[in-house]
Amino acid sequence: MRKLPExxxxxxxxxxxxxxxxxxxxxxxxxxxxxxxxKLWDLMKSHDSVAIxxxxxxxxxLLFVRQFxxxxxxNRVYAGGEQEVPPVGTAIDGDPRLGLTVELCAGIVDKGKxxxxxxxxxxxxxxxxxxxxxxxxxxxxxxTGVGTTGSMQTIFYAKVTEAMRLSKGGGNPAEGEYIExxxxxxxxxxxxxxxxxxxxxxxxxxxxxWFLKEKLRPSFVEVMRQNYLQIAVVSSGxxxxxxxxxxxxxxxxx
Length: 254
Known about the structure:
seven-stranded mixed sheet, 29% helix, alpha+beta
């Protein structure tokens, strides 16, 4: 697929800090007995989330969001060991672009609202389109972080046009969001999800796969056209076979 446009980042002074009272994750440990053997498992409590497959029907593309993810940056830059946590105050120096991901438009469930309504708000905040909650199509719900959080993510599908655009999007700066919208043509989607140079979560790949399967099914006319061509080819083959057989029989009679 074509290379994604460059993004200008102003990110510096990346330093490890102590995490005492996070609003988003809360680590804890469970103990249990399985087949008579005592076990321990370390977990984190986190928010459920929504994600939206945004289909721009006029431009024949899907819209994604690109943003800096500190967890991706840290794991791509820090080389101190797979499980080692650097001491507080350690500077993590590297190219900030290594922390960029391309994802479905998404947001955490932290409001007492229906999921579709939260999803519609995220589409407007992050991508700038006015989508009604009633126009969203629910795709599926699955679990994320099954080894650590087990949180639930619900995916929706939305169709947008330029007439629905209210802004450029970009997220909510008051919440620390700095997001860029990325457009990928439908013709390049399969290459996009297989491109390992573009960090993306599994939910993104699932959303694209669902879209390609469920929303790009050939129309009845296209199916009939393809079947007609196949029948024509087969018929031509039969006619050719009959002609060659006749020629062969005539040759034998001579």
